Amino acid sequence: MIAFLFFLVFLLVYMVFAVYAERKLSAFIQDRLGPTEIGPYGMFQTLADLVKLLQKEDIVPVKADKWVFLAAPAVIFTAIFAGFAVMPLTPTLQGSGAVVGVFYLLTIVSIDIVGLLAAGWSSNNKYSLLGAMRSVAQIVSYEIPVGLSVLCVVVLCQTLDLQEICYQQGIYIRTLPVYSESTNYLFGIKRLGIDMTEVGGFLTWNVIRMPLFFIVYIIFFIATLAEANRAPFDIPEAESELVGGFHTEYSGFRWALLFLAEYGMMLLVSFLGAVLFFGGWNTLFPNIGPVRLADWTSGMPGTIYGNITGAFWIILKAFIGVFIQMWVRWTYPRLRVDQLMHLCWKVLTPLSLLLLFISALWKLL
Amino acid sequence: MQKGANNSYFGNIWEGITSSWQGLKLSFKHIWEARQRRTPIGITDPDYFKQETGIVTLTYPYESLPVPDNGRYRLHNEMEDCIVCDKCAEICPVSCIDIEAVKSTEEIRKTSDGHSVRLYAARFDIDMAKCCFCGLCTTVCPTECLTMTKTYDFSEFDIRDMIYHFSDLSPEQAVEKRQNYETLQTAKQQAKASTTNVQPTEEKTAEQTSTTPATAKPVMKKPAIKPVTKPVITDPTPSISEETPYVTEVTPEISQTIQEAAPQDTKAEETDQSEQAPAKPVMKKPVIKPMIKKKTDE
Fold first, then answer.
1. Which tens digit of pLDDT belongs to each residue from A38-60?
2. What mean pLDDT value characterizes chain A?
3. What is the value of ipTM here, to two decimals?
């Protein structure tokens, strides 16, 4: 319940400031100032925008399929928000400790497609329908590289539980009864014989436990970018050609909900990336001999300090992920549909298959 | 590596990776440089071209680039120095200056450069909404009282506020000055006491007394004058086309006569427009319009 309330409030606050951050970041990349008027440095610009949005009329087109049209934004947002249920926020705080966390996450996020298609199709607008169809084609295609790259991690970690994956990547691995006998070796190679269990920090993150995971992460990042309909994979929205894509006909609060879902999706995949590859709630700093940086910067699981540091680290990592997503968005132009499919089927999918094979072998080393 | 040099599968991937990385580096460079920003210094400043990186936007109402002293923006007329010569109104290509002069009975004052002022400006309106900022009016101005200033931000919510009134006389004062002049003139003419001249003077005084309230409401003027001009011009069309060359260089007097001679079929339209904007330069337009119409008819 705490996790639910936390994520609900956190997501709303995050969305307000993520939109602000995105506007500022895009402005800086383009040598502009961005919002400056409302509040210090224009910080309350999004709040003002939100107030304006909530005052707007909730327009339903006459020829639209009314109930589907009205329900679609709720479906999209619910699907994405449900994804946060299995996110381990701290060593002890997690909405649902599902054993099949990763599997659940990939499934529930796929419901997002249903919402997108419903929104686009029920609008009874050619742009919306085109956007929805593109969206479905894109997301269904990119599910495969996402699934394969997640599978690489699952193969190495031997678990689908996101909380367990987090525990494996830090100094507290042995506090979990399942792993009380486990040892973390440098690069995950037992034969090197370098014990990293007590060192922790970034040295036990999955990207170090299996160095090729950095490439896997890039695949994961690109594919989730496409899943989140973010530029350069924003052909479902494609402002310049499809007006607004699947959300062309939405206004007011429902439009805000779609926007919230988009930013929520960004955060969700950034969280997932942090958990799978960058140690989740584990600290960045390793213990170096007597300098117990890892112990100092992350408390014991279950303690208040442990909760605070855990939340701090995972949110920091997720925000860095969101930052990279924004940075990428304001750098690249939109991909053409054929380029999009080329990248997915001819580049990312074979590469992730190869990496999955190598990951499976790595576990045997 | 040159673009497309290795057009194979792996070559394309490699090029995609390297060029994408270049792009990310470039945009990150801009984020990094966003710590600096341009300051509002003018082109005359030696450092103007020094700031090549960072944010270029200026938060305009709070900061703006300085305008050089010879900036040619809003017009200003220094009424103290104006001799109401009407040259600026004549040269203006868009007819945005509207002057109505009233003769004075004596020299009013001397301008700062020694010209004597003998005319009152009953009206000296500049419509900045029409102004094309060519600066011709300031060039012809003999006393250099009409100048262009550095002020460029003078937008208004109401277009009528774009008309700047420079006249230093109130409408009542203008009426008074005009009456002063007329009484002087009639006194002079009575002193001459020539019976043959009585007829035209009467006509003239009648015309001028009737134009007296015209500053406030030009609509009033028409019924008084029309019967006068009607018998003179029997066939309006040829006489108007004769007058066309004068129309192009409009002086207030000529424009008035044209108004008088305006064909009756446009009467309704004219009264409409003059009612909407009395005593505004808008008045001139309906006059010129029928002229052009007549021309094309020929």
1. 888 888 888 888 888 888 888 88
2. 85
3. 0.81
Range of the domain at B161: 75-172
- For residue A152, tell me if it sits in a domain: yes
Residues in chain A: 365
Domain that holds residue A310: 57-362
- Contacts of B156-159 with C-beta under 8 Å, sequence gap 24+, read B159/B129
CB of A189 within 8 A of CB of A195?
A: no
Closest CA to A106 of A139, A83, A89, A81: A83
In a domain, A217, yes or no: yes
**pLDDT above 50 (res B212):** no
Residue A47 falls inside a structural domain: no
**Residue A328 to residues A25, A173, A332, A333: CA-CA distances in angstroms?**
11, 34, 6, 9
Indicate whether B191 belongs to any domain: no
* pLDDT in the model for residue B199: 53
Using a CB–CB cutoff of 8 Å, tell me whether A327 touches chain B. Answer: yes
Query: Which residues lie below 8 Å from residue A219, measured CB to CB, with a gap of 6+?
Result: A145, A148, A149, A348, A351, A352, A355
B193/A152 Cα distance (integer angstroms): 119
How many alpha carbons fall within 13 Å on the CB side of residue A173?
22
| Domain CATH code at residue B148 | 3.30.70.3270
Chain B hits for A36, CB-CB cut-off 8 Å, are 59
pLDDT in tens, B226-239: 444 444 444 444 44
Residues of A in contact with B26 (CB under 8 A): 331
For residue A287, count other CB atoms closer than 10 A to its CB: 20
Domain assignment present for B118? yes
- Residue B164 in any domain: the answer is yes
Count structural domains, chain A: 1
Nearest CB among B24, B34, B59 relative to A331 is that of B24
Is residue A37 in a domain? Answer: no
Number of domain units in chain B: 1
Q: Residue A292's beta-bridge partner residues?
A: A287
Give the whole-angstrom CA distance, residue A152 versus residue A218: 13
- With CA atoms as reference, the chain B residue closest to A346 would be B9
Q: With an 8 Å Cβ cutoff, are B59 and A36 in contact?
A: yes
Chain A residues close to B24, C-beta within 8 Å: 327-328, 331
| DSSP assignment string, B179-229 | HHHHHHHHHHHHHHT-STTHHHHHHHHHHHHHHGGGGT-GGGHHHHHHHHH
pLDDT digits 0-9 by tens, A1-32: 777 888 888 888 888 888 899 999 999 999 88
Other C-beta atoms closer than 10 Å to the C-beta of A185 total 17
**Closest Cα of chain A to B149: distance in Å?**
30
Could you give the percent of chain A with pLDDT greater than 70? 100
Q: Is residue B168 part of a domain?
A: yes
A246-250, A327-331, B193-197, B262-266: least confident range: B262-266
* CA A106/CA A113 separation, integer angstroms: 12
Tell me: the pLDDT tens digits for B139-184?
A: 998 888 898 988 888 888 988 888 998 888 888 888 888 888 888 8
The per-residue pLDDT for range A101-119, each reduced to its tens digit, is 888 888 888 888 888 888 8
